[in-house]
Automatic annotation (TrEMBL):
Alphabetized Pfam families for the sequence: MutS_IV
High-level lineage: Bacteria, Bacillati, Bacillota, Bacilli, Bacillales
Organism for this UniProt entry: Sporolactobacillus inulinus
Protein name, per record: DNA mismatch repair protein MutS
Transmembrane segments: none
Domain DNA mismatch repair protein MutS clamp: 2-51
Amino acid sequence: MFGYYIEVSKPNLKLIPEGRYERRQTLSNAERFITPELKEKERVILEAEEKRVGLEFQIFGDVRLKIKEQSERLQKLARLISSLDVLQSFASVSDQNGYVRPQFSNERALEIKNSRHPVIERVMRRGTFVANDIKMDETCDLLMITGPNMGGKVRICAKLH
């Protein structure tokens, strides 16, 4: 049985006044009754529930429309936040690992001191990574890189690429 009802156990059935209560369901140990007032309260509650659902749907639609109207601004904001997130991550990693910001000039030269590869340095045993320097200018515009296999030649080339 759905809805609101009053359940009365079999021993207490004799206490129910005649005429006002309408029997709705009989169970093995009890009977269920409704009254006109209970029916009215149920109707009011069901109407309120329908109103609530309608209002929720209307408010949801209004919010969606407002978001849609601002979608370009929200997407721009999301891009700015993602850029800030990347920059903050760079700053955090730089601070943790002692990285520095490069200095640029108009000279035709490249000078890298204590260069490190962040991934390779992380996977090597602590203290075994060897940083290296690279210097190229008008007097040196070609580097010959030699060394044993797995000696870091490709890593140096990747830095210059």
